Amino acid sequence: MKTCPLNLLAGFLRKWGDKNPLAGLITYLNATNMKKLPIALCVLCFAIPAKAQIYLQGGLNLANITRTNDGQTEKNNILTSFNAGIMGRWGLSKELDIETGLLFSGHGSRAETYFNGGSNYVKTRFNPYYIQAPLNAVIKIPLVKNANLFFHAGPYIAVGVGGRSRWESRIGPIVSTSSSSIKFSNDDPFTSEQDDAAYDKLKRFDYGLNAGAGIDFEFVILKLNYGLGLARINSTEGNNAGSDKNKYRTISLSVGIPLSR
C-alpha cells in the first residue's frame, strides 16, 4: 500500500507534536517503516513558500572524527569527501531568511601509521554517507547590487544510508587490503536506549549544529560551513552528552546554483 505524504506528516504531528520537533521526527521515523524516510524528509524540508529561492548545491567535505573526550581531532586524519543536494530559502525578507533542504553528505576520517623507517604501514579510511536535513537561520548583508554577504546557523538531522571502510597494510614485502560496508543500527539518538546496538554498527541517526558564511551572487552562491556533530557515532555509546569523543566534525566548501529567485 502506498503511503500518502500528507498522512505521514499528519501522523507525525498527532503523535509527536507536543515534543521537541527534531526528536519527534527521528522517533517517528524509527517507529515506522524506513521506506517512508525519503517521503518524510521531503515533506519536512520542502513545505516552503512558492516564492522560495531553490538552488542546487555541491562541494567538498573535509571530514574528521573527534579522538578525545574534550572533542579534539588530529589534522592528519582529515578525509576528503563531498556533499550534493538541493536547498531552499523561504524568502522571508531581504535581511533575514530560513534555509532548509536535503543533502547527500560524506563524513568519516582516515589514519596512516608508518613504522620501520616508513617502509611498513597501516592505512585506514572510514567513509559513511548520510542524507542530511539542515534548518538554518540566514542573516543577509548587502554588499553591492545583486550580491549579499550572509551568515547562517542552525540544527541538522541526518540518516545513515551507506558507506565503506577500507584497510591496507604493508609488512615487509606483503601488502594486504580489505574493505567492508558500513553497518547502521536503528536507534534514537535523543534517548539513552540503544536498539540493535553492536560494536561494528554506527547509530542510524546523527544530529548536530551547522554554522557558516558565504556570498550570494545573482547566479551563484559560495558557502563555507562547519558541521558540529553532537551524537557519538558508535551504536554502543548511549550517553551523547557524557563525552565529545567519536563525534563528526566536518568543514564544507560548496557552490550553489540558483534555480529560481
Note down, in words, how this protein is organized.
Helix content is 12%, strand content 52%. By secondary structure, it is mainly β. It has two domains: 47 residues, no CATH class; 210 residues, Porin, CATH 2.40.160. The protein has an eight-stranded antiparallel β-barrel. A hairpin with a 2-residue loop joins strand 5 and strand 6. Helix 1 crosses helix 3. The N terminus is likely disordered.
Topology:
Blueprint: H1 5-16, H2 21-31, H3 37-45, E1 53-65, E2 79-89, E3 96-106, E4 109-115, E5 120-144, E6 147-171, E7 174-181, E8 183-184, E9 201-202, E10 205-216, E11 221-229, E12 248-258
Helix pairs in contact: 1-3
Compact summary:
The chain has about 260 residues and is mainly beta.
Assembly type of the shown chains?
single chain
**Helix-strand sequence:** HHHEEEEEEEEEEEE
Query: Any idea what the shape is?
Result: elongated
The largest beta-sheet arranges its strands as 1-2-3-5-6-10-11-12
N-to-C CA distance: 38 Å
User: Based on DSSP secondary structure assignment, what is the total number of beta strands?
Assistant: 12
Which CATH architecture of the largest domain is right?
Beta Barrel
Global structural class: mainly beta
In CATH, what is the class of the largest domain? Mainly Beta
Task: Provide the β-strand percentage band.
Answer: over 45%
Low-confidence stretches: 1-10, 12-25
| Secondary structure tally, helices | 3
Instruction: Supply Rg.
Output: 20 Å
Percent helix among the residues?
10-25%
Domain count: 2
Mean pLDDT equals 80
At the fold tier of CATH, the topology name of the largest domain is Porin
The biggest beta sheet is recorded as: 8 strands, antiparallel, barrel
